[in-house]
């Protein structure tokens, strides 16, 4: 080694002072030629050195070609990238030198790493921590420029590096015109939360682009058309509950609308009176026109929030057999009404949608047909995700379709049993529940099913067992049909045909009451599964009662919450498998794939559930919905919730597309199959996962190092 170093010193040119913050045209002062000469690149280094005094870079074409290989430049028009390259400067930095120091103000330039490797070092309370590593194709210096503040970390070259210096003013103007590139930059900054930075995202994209992908009919309708957009408030026709029926009818006729919304003094929805209701009650039944509209209004009102999925709302309307949905400020009847949408209104916003599949499912009878319909659901999900639609929205849409499928299979199985002389217990209320990922409305692929049954108790234990035998027999038929449609049986036995998952209301309530900080193993698994229960078929009141008891019990049990928090903190993300810089930071080991579901999505999923229990928020089912409710209701968690929701949305989409590509659940992921942009996004997402774990650790006083 000494001999090698001596040879090295004989070749190298004497090094000058180390670099401070870089400035345009200051290429010579960092010993750049020295290091590059040693690497056998003296001729290229000489060309760079000769161009130092030139006012412009002489090789813009080569720079443009390099930029176009990596995001966000690959998302920009080629002519825009050429403009950036024409104004670019070339920097060469030797190993060990700093590109900028922590606390230095940004110079107004973005640096593109064309060769080498750079580490971000965070000096905090006397300790230095390596928080990130930038490889070829990465962009340096964006965070400080976006926030317009001093650099929160130092950037040090750990290999001889060459960078292209680009005008931030020019790049920012280009990003403002390109949603896809701007979205990439948003995600690119997520790592900064680890060094105490507050990330404030710019406005959401106003358009959707699918660069390089042919748009089919479905995708073209999805392009900018997948959310509910309330119309001007002047269009909303309302009246009070005491208004006379005749007055309401006159307003409907004058405005030429199909209904009138009944509201209270705060414009909160109480009910809807449709023209059909007026005909039935007044014309047919002869009710006096002087009666109040409260006597004939339909209630409760189905409500949705602004900017929610128009397609999902359409499916809900079809499934519930209702003609209108009311748009309110927060999606509940407890806030002001903003608009009322009919099927026709939503069709104008959704374009092509899978609503037709609902009708097909309702009339299907054979197992082969159900499998064909499920294949089509997955094909639609793929096209939605390819078109850039939120995976969380796609999960909601698939949940509505799979719920309709389950309802249909329950009806067919009930008819089959009756044909064999077996009837469901007379007078015994019951309900089919989804739990697990389906309960959270996140089952896009036909992975293993998780379901359960609750039924009302009888007077004796013998009667309960007789009822259970019939319900498990019904469940076995439904599950056989689900398997024939392409779903997998749950390996853990979380299925309604299992007597442990087919229980009376009292049995479920007794188990829920037993959940405490001492549960472990199977008990803890059952608790977390039941926290996500959702009604699918049968008596909804039975499910609602269980759900309310679960939240009342868990939200008041701090030791139980700490027990759940410990499992979140212990589940470290697989950062050591996604790239060289992380492997070097955390150590090489493990297989070539990692468990994306458990180690990536798991902490975000469980933290959303835990924070919902802690803050007593039980209106949402999905992980994305829980984070969104937390963002809206708990201001101090708003930024964390926004980051976590985006991260989970990305992971859910990545897992689904991975599963569709491989023909399996998509649970495990080989990072070598990812594109450059996916690797960068995944790196940022795992930093968000760690940030969420730190928040859980702090909130619930959990020991351990993440």
UniProtKB/TrEMBL annotation:
GO MF entries: [protein-PII] uridylyltransferase activity
Coiled coil regions, renumbered to chain? none
Domain (Cyclic nucleotide-binding): residue spans on this chain: 72-183
Q: Which InterPro entries match?
A: CBS_dom, CBS_dom_sf, cNMP-bd_dom, cNMP-bd_dom_sf, Diverse_CBS-Domain, DUF294_put_nucleoTrafse_sb-bd, GlnD_Uridyltrans_N, RmlC-like_jellyroll
Protein's UniProt keywords contain Acetylation:
no
Instruction: Write the record's keywords in alphabetical order, separated by commas.
Output: CBS domain
**Matching PROSITE patterns:** CBS, CNMP_BINDING_3
Q: Where is the CBS domain?
A: 230-289, 297-357
Q: Which domain of life is it from?
A: Bacteria
Instruction: Fetch the PANTHER family from UniProt.
Output: CBS DOMAIN-CONTAINING PROTEIN, CBS DOMAIN-CONTAINING PROTEIN CBSX3, MITOCHONDRIAL
This protein's name: CBS domain-containing protein
Provenance organism: Ereboglobus luteus
**Origin organism lineage:** Bacteria, Pseudomonadati, Verrucomicrobiota, Opitutia, Opitutales
